[in-house]
């Protein structure tokens, strides 16, 4: 086995914790799941398209300006099978969103939970599943 | 002719359905065994065709528990995902028997956090990976042909059961070319002609043009089907290997199309 491969395997074993949510469309490496985001604001749109539904929320920043956040949700199919509908949230609804931030882009996030302004749960976010490394990837 | 049209019109008028709420998400599947409660009897015997063979027709999803694992009140239920979706060999002692080349591929893809995953780019669902994806698969079985419909990108796969041989030197495709025959109650599907650059799972285990894939379908009960996947791919694996994916019948619901390119927004975030 080449030195290069050994180095790669060692690096994979020590540095990667493969995080994958069930929405297999992508690996979600564009989100930093340690960078929490909690915002409150007004729904501008619930986009009901594949591969991910998206919730757009106007959040007032410290300068008093409205920033339109784009939160990724599971696929519409997954949501519909949980009983959500494309009009489960309407423009103007006040919501609190918890999620993870995109690594390199502002105002884009991965929603974990969405609550009404009074704190009452609206519906789910996504569950991250952390898988163990496959055999042989850990450093020897 | 006119009379025939009348008949067709009358039948069409009679067939106009009442409006069902929420598409057919909760519409009862007709003609399936049920318990006294009305729920599908998933432990009933596997159904059979007129020819006496097991009938695999129905909607299937990897047999992942649908349980509520959320600790807070803001989760409806845990996401459902086959563990094999990440690593197809996760239940094999020692994992998949990678060659040096394929292991380097897989490790590099992991290091890149799956950014090159064809699935990320909304490419088609490719079997055998497609068994593990989080969309439904509908099997439509006829005596000479099994059609597999996949929700992701509204894709299809044909498995010929009419005795034709596998093609020689085929033009490689995403799903290759599949024929099947019966061994008792097991449907044995053989596939060749898979493209050289396919992924088997999220971590990027390769499968190549050299691959010969065998899928053995067994319907254990009305509610459970086992798919034993055997891969012989000397370019990517040092020896043949087999894994079994258990699929659960999805009754009283419907297929939902999922066109990935409709609103793909993640690739640009990888920069």
Description:
The complex is a heterodimer of chains A (140) and B (271). Chain A is built from two helices and eight strands. Helix content of chain A is 14%, strand content 41%. In chain A, strand 6 and strand 7 form a beta hairpin. With 140 residues, chain A is mainly beta. The longest helix of chain A has 13 residues. The C terminus of chain A is likely disordered. By secondary structure, chain B is mainly β. Helix content of chain B is 10%, strand content 24%. Chain B contains two helices and eleven strands. In chain B, the strands form two sheets. A nine-stranded mixed barrel of chain B has the order 1-2-3-4-5-6-9-10-11. In chain B, strands 7-8 form a two-stranded antiparallel sheet. The longest helix of chain B is centred in the first third of the chain and has 14 residues. Classes of the chains: A mainly beta (140), B mainly beta (271). Chains A and B meet through helix 1, helix 2, strand 6 and strand 7 of A and helix 2 of B.
Quick summary:
The complex is a heterodimer of chains A (140) and B (271). Chain A has 140 residues and is mainly beta. Chain A has helices at residues 3-15, 76-81, and strands at residues 19-21, 31-47, 54-60, 66-72, 94-102, 108-116, 121-123, 128-130.
Indicate the topology.
The complex is a heterodimer of chains A (140) and B (271).
Chain A: H1 3-15, E1 19-21, E2 31-47, E3 54-60, E4 66-72, H2 76-81, E5 94-102, E6 108-116, E7 121-123, E8 128-130
Parallel strand pairs in A: 4-6
Antiparallel strand pairs in A: 1-8, 2-3, 2-5, 3-4, 5-6, 6-7
Chain B: H1 2-15, E1 58-62, H2 100-111, E2 137-141, E3 145-150, E4 155-160, E5 177-183, E6 186-192, E7 198-199, E8 206-207, E9 212-219, E10 224-232, E11 241-249
Parallel strand pairs in B: 4-5
Antiparallel strand pairs in B: 1-2, 1-11, 2-3, 3-4, 5-6, 6-9, 7-8, 9-10, 10-11
